[in-house]
Amino acid sequence: MAISQIFDVSKQALQNSERAIDTISKNIANVNTEGYKRRLIDTENFTGSGAANGVDTQDLMRARNVFIENQLIKEQGSLGKYESDSAIIANIESLFGEPGSSGLQNLMTEFWNSWNDLANDPESQSARVVVRDKAVTMTNAFNRVYSDLHDMQQEISREIVNTVTQANKLIRQIDTLNRQYTVSKSADLLDQRDLVLNQLSELIDIEVKNNSGSDLVVSLDGQILVSQNYVSQIVSDASYENNYPSYTFALDTNKKAINIEGGSLGSILDINNEYIPDYMNQLDILAVSLVGRINQLHSNGYNLDGKTGINFFESNVSGAADITVNRDIREDHSLIATAGSESAAGDGSVAQAIYDAQFEKVLNNGTYSDYYNSLITQVGHQVSEANFNYESQQNIVQSLQNQRDSVSGVSLDEELAKLIEYQNAYQAASKLIATSNAMINSILTMI
Amino acid sequence: MRVTQSMMTRTLISNLNKGRESMSTSQSIMSTGKNLQSASDDPVKYATTTRYKETYSQNEQYQKNILDAKGWVDTTSSILNDIYSNVLSAKDLAYSAADSSSSTEELETMADQLEGFISEIYSLTNSKYLGKYLFSGTRTVEDKPFDYDGSTVDYIGNEGKITRRISEGYDATINISGDEIMNTDVFENLISLRDAMLAGDRSAISDSIGALEQSAQDILSIQSKTGSLSNLLDMTNNRLEVANTNLSSLISELEDADLTEVIAQYNSNELAYQAALQATSSVLNLNILDFL
Fold this sequence. Notes:
The complex is a heterodimer of chains A (447) and B (292). Chain A has 2 domains: 30-62, no CATH class; 74-383, no CATH class. Chain A contains 12 helices and 7 strands. Chain A has helices spanning 3-29, 46-53, 57-60, 66-96, 104-120, 125-184, 187-203, 263-299, 327-331, 349-356, 368-408, 412-446; strands at residues 206-209, 217-220, 223-227, 230-231, 234-241, 244-251, 257-258. In chain A, α5 (104-120) packs antiparallel against α6 (125-184) and α8 runs antiparallel to α10. The longest helix of chain A has 60 residues, at 125-184. The model of chain A is unreliable at 46-55 (pLDDT under 50). Chain B is mainly alpha-helical. In chain B, β5 (163-167) and β6 (170-173) form a beta hairpin. The mean pLDDT of chain B is 91.
């Protein structure tokens, strides 16, 4: 063995240490970079041997657990859905303002009670004013809740369009990163792609396959969104029923319809297509039934001047949106009828019958109040379920993130220890060169 | 398990958030005194509480109705009592008139006195309570229900019933219609007594004593009806009172926060939060660089 060989070995050792320290410095620099995956120290020289075997070597340099990452993408879809559910439905719940003095529950009670007071004092004009005012307050509350729901729905409509735009942007980004990767083969591009995939998974329930190099396939509801040299965008379409938009989706490439169930888009879609229309519909049924029944009773009654056949509410209403007290009564409260016959001022039987209407089992075998309460309880259930799901899903996602970071995250302790290790190796290799140099010098002096 | 910086940061942040969240929940319970702030806090409890509150509010309404009915019934009762004592005085007068020693002039004076009783009773039957005629059926604000032209009294009210809802599904009739008073023949008997006095017809005067006695008894029995109604109102009111006391304690049990429990809970949350903060500061300060 020639002494000069020692130089080659030492040179190799110096280069190895340099490369290792380079990797360590990259890891330390990116300790807080989102989506960064710890680089493995390339002692076996992936770049050389791997490429020959056709393995995508850039990916091999990143410490990762693909199984957990795929799991995480799936669970993040659910997290996005539950998070959005719990925020938006809780918001809807607060629109109803229950329990509270300005909630419909209380205003309906006050409305009914005002009829009882009028039944006790049917000769009184001031009791009529109270009935009218309570009725106006109640109908205003119906209108307000309904229009708040309507506003909420419009906001959600905009949110749906925005989310689709956002998802499409992310899909295009993945495609762009794919293309860049085919050219530059940089592991940083893969980190970035994983980050974008994570963001996308919070919006829609994507499925990811072959997430290593350029073979990545991202699909949604069985249709491919992105693969090598292929990208497809989501197009939304709104169909209107009773002025209410319902959204469906398709891909722009093959025009196939897709169902979106998870992610925050899945959540707002459900809320828009099912939850809010259901709430609005129940309010409408309540309002229409109330108007019908009270008008029927009221128009059979007589007021103090012997007038009869007057509706208490405007009769041609479509529901909670436009329920309102009869314009004539709003202008002249003396038109409110109380008596079952003419010239019997002390007869409050019609007012009493209207008061009693609150006990009638008219809707789903329950009273008006039962019906409204079951709506509020339904919303409450949905909120508490969403909160519960959100909380437990947070734990699942957090634990998966920790498992992922356990493999992929940078540990400063580890990196610094390695830094010292390779620093020592570097010093040793340098010493080796100095020693061999000295050895050669000794031999040369022998001449 | 390999533990990295990002895992530690995530766990610490998430624990700090949980600590803040539970403190904020306890805080809002403490400041409102209510466990149940929206239906979503506990939908089942909410549904029950709402039902209880509804019943509570109905009971309050019934109590209000009872108070109102009580005023009406007690006024009716005291007026009937006045009518009764007027009839008794008229009867006493009839006894004196029946006495054979009284002269024609004296009989005429007595007839005048009797006329006074008739007018008194007549005006009592036209009494108003809170602006409404008490004995007019449901024609409470139209013309006077009783009309007296000096020789006959006519009733022009109706037989309508005035009711108050005093408990679930029970309407109490609180008015005495003028017909019932007419049926006692009190006016007819008094007027014929007066005419007999004016005519000096002693046998007719004696005959009228029995008839007047009957009228007085009839009025008394009407009055006792109002008395027992008044009792019923009191009893129902007491029952509603008890029901509402029970209901409000049930509602409070479901809805109100147990402050001792909440405060204890808050203290333990605060302790956990402080511990998390302490852990954060000491864990994040630990660094291998200090030891190299």
